# Entry
Amino acid sequence: MSFLKRISLSFLSLLLATSAHAADNAQADLLQTVPGFKVDVVLKAEKANGSWINLGVDEKGRLLLSGQNGQAITRVTLKDGVVDQQEILKLPVSEVMGTLFAFDSLYVNASGKGPRGGNVFGLFRLKDTKGDGNYDSVELLHEWRGGNGEHGAHGIVLGPDKKLYVVVGNFVDLGNDMAPVSPHRNYADDLAMPRAEDGNGFGSGKKPPGGSIVRLDPDGKNPQLFAAGERNTYDIAFNADGELFGFDSDMEWDWGMPWYRPIRIFHAPSGADQGFREGSAKWPEYYMDSLPAAVTVGIGCPTGVAFGTGAKFPAKYQKAMYVLDWTYGRLIAVHLTPDGASYKGTWENFVAPKSLNGTGAKSNLNLTDVVIGKDGAMYFTTGGRNTGATLYRVTYTGEESTAAADLHDATGADARALRHKLEAFHGKQDTTAIELAWANLNSADRFIRYAARLAIESQPIEQWKDKALAEKQPSAGLTALLALARYGGKDIQPELLKALARFPISSLTETQQIEKLRVIEVTIARQGKPTADDAKALIAELDPAYPAKTEPMNRELSEILLALDAPDAIAKTVKLLTASTTQEEQVWYVLQLRTAKTGWTPELRQQYFTWWTGDRSKQHPGYVTQWFKDAGRDYSDGASFPNFLKNLHADARKTLSPEETTALEPVLTAFTAPGKVKKPAATQRSVVKNWTMADLEPALAQVGKGRNFQVGKNMYEIGQCAQCHKFGNDGGAVGPDLTAVSSRFQRRDILESIIDPSKVVSEQYQNTMIGLKNDTDIIGRVLEETADKLVVQQNPLAPDKTTVKKSDIKTRTLSKVSPMPQGLADILTKDEILDLIAYMESAGKRDHPDFSK
# Structure
């Protein structure tokens, strides 16, 4: 029986809008692109066929559009950029978040039937065995445990080696599925001091590798962990020279914290670690055991990516990498240039709403995916989380040549070839590996050194341990000793530290100094705190260098010296805390000091805890505030910022003796976590009406002008929105940040989330339903998870927590019911609801056009 059923165009017209009309292109008129390019609306989805989150191309150049919530794949045949035919593919898979046509098969990451009959999320291979256009064969190749959510399994691409490359998010459990010869292995947090978990519990307890790229054979066998240390990359792409790139997401709840990782375009060579860890454990990109970004963008929500290969664009834009930002509506063109064995680059907005950095009412462009069509045009989709979906087309109408350009880079070819030669040893034992790799450990090219180290780490440690301990060149020696710290046992630490002493910190460049400090951190993390004599020697060398002249040096020195219980470390770190001018740097010292126990005096305790009661809204580095300007919004702290500080304060209090607690009682009780929301005064309001979408949707056009700012603000308070949502720097974190809600959602979507909050619930805000063996249920938000327990907050507006032993759990599922109560708007009038939407759309700005007369 065929799994695909073709449906006539006349019937589909009931489900889909037909090809773009002039009215549709009014939507495109709200967008701007670079000179010489034109954007058109091709197709608009209606409710029945989806909120498109994935866009693929089959062997005939037909577009495959996939949605959420059980929506089928729509196959679109185009002729001269206009829809010629539409078909609904009736397949036993849904929730498609990655498509690839290769080897006469359609590969999808999707939800479907597993070998035992239950639903699983995995890599499926669909085949048309009869040649009639129907996918009559469906085969599960690889299951992705935890892969069915927004942080699950995403894009699929074909590598130059004819292997499948799949990118998965940080909630996928790779378990023991990866082959032992994987290029990326032996990963950990590798911190000298304990990490702090996310303030709101998101990702709490999860360990590396984080988001990852998995390489598989075409039949799904021999899965290898190719690269990792990402957060939640949605898509990846190879350039013309066969180099792999991705666009990694941020943890926007970390804004204002020193461990915030901006969204970035990253190069993913073999064994790459991009440094993402959960909570405060995220690595700065100067760590030598990770690789730096090729291009930093700042804030946003990365989705689809594609290179311009095959586009009928000028050469510059054929070669560009295109990346999508769902939250702020930016389709970005990235221009990469070789930099040794890797790349650096610049970026520009290629398509974005005219209102992004201009004036006028906000228009959203919630971008989801992008491809270059067989006709040389670019196609991209909007949608996600049940929002309205649209298919757009970008063409070049300027005067420059669009002839196919040579997209290969001659510059850097030799360095890349050497890197590839070293990468051939990753995960493989070979007697020739050490000689070639050792010759490149002192390379000035960070990517070459990284590849050489992994080649050495892939060989038995007894074959290279003595060479590492004897190496005399600083860069080579530090790199080799890092390998030894990563793979050696506890017994190796004294020899390692003795070898490290051959490179006095005073004799090194700052880059090398940081590399030496990194080796010390890793050996503390992996082999434990050094012996008393070794610790004393380290302190004697490092103490005179602290404080240093730069923030990175002070960051690493503070962590190590506090971990070693250096006598002056607390005093020096408290002094840096009080002298620092940015919030980010101050919070770093607060984090490190919170568990330190040796070296406190009453005066230092007083200074430390006084910091918590002062003005913490300090200046931010200029590049941080620029990230927000680029996204068309004002800076605000992340949603986890208040609870991070509250939890750090609680950790610090645990180190106090009863006598210290009594002495510090006034300053301890003076601390109030930022963002704490005061409950609005009780307002006696009767129900106006049980509002429905049909009641209010026709009036949404009235939001755009003549609304009342003060009424909208009052309704935001009366509706208790601030109890659960951040707006600017104020509010809770139970629900999504609403500051820039109009950048990603249309008014209809905002209204629907108010009227029917359970219709679409992001996994970041879903409650968990826990069925216990004693037949009782617990529903709430998981704040912490360890190997043997869960910590759950059942009431989002109360601090009480419940600890559940995993041994007592019978079932565990995500709740489809929103934590936001139904009917909150029923006590408001229609005009008050419209004023509320205008207030949210304005980001709290009184001069917004919605309030003009």
Q: What stands out?
A: DSSP finds 24 helices and 32 strands in the chain. Residues 1-20 have pLDDT under 50 and may be disordered. The radius of gyration is 28 Å.
